[in-house]
Structure formats: structure tokens, C-alpha cells
Design a protein that fits this description.
Elements: H1 3-15, H2 19-24, H3 40-54, H4 71-84
Helix pairs in contact: 1-3, 1-4
Length: 85
């Protein structure tokens, strides 16, 4: 499974998205402010799921809203973390 597919799968699971919303998630899909389920608690849960899935750790000072602007920015963040480990 590619990073994009895996990150989207995590988003679908954590946000409990179903139907058309889950199927419509793509690289350029906006997240924060666009998906009602994606609130501050969801951010923490998504980060925890990514840490568990990929085995990296996210420091508090690494987290900003730009990471969660789109699905693509989140995937890029994951790819960057993986390249650093």
C-alpha cells in the first residue's frame, strides 16, 4: 500500500468517514476547516495513528496547521518524517 493510500485509510478510520466523503479523499482534498469531523481531537488521534503505523515520533513543535491543510500536505509530512528515520 502506498503512503497516500495508507494515510487516506487512516483518515477514513480515525474520522469514521463513510460513503462519498471517504471515496472522494484525494491528494488535493482540503482537511482542516473543510471536513467537520476533523477537529483538534482528530488531529491528535491522526498523529497518534501515524506514529503507530510508521514508527516515528512527532514533536509538539513540528505540528502546525499547514500540515493539515490538505491530504497531500499530510502525506508530504509523513514522507518527510520517513526520510528522516
Amino acid at each position: 500500500m502506498s503512503t497516500q493510500e495508507n494515510v487516506i485509510s487512516i483518515l477514513v478510520d480515525v474520522l469514521q468517514l463513510g460513503g462519498n466523503v471517504a471515496k472522494s479523499l484525494a491528494f488535493d482534498t482540503p482537511l482542516l476547516g473543510s471536513i467537520p469531523e476533523f477537529d483538534s481531537m482528530a488531529v491528535v488521534t491522526v498523529l497518534t495513528a501515524l506514529e503507530e503505523e510508521y514508527g516515528f515520533f512527532v514533536d509538539d513543535d513540528e505540528i502546525d496547521a499547514e500540515i493539515f491543510e490538505t491530504v497531500g500536505t499530510l502525506i508530504s509530512f509523513v514522507d518527510n518524517k520517513l526520510s528522516m528515520s
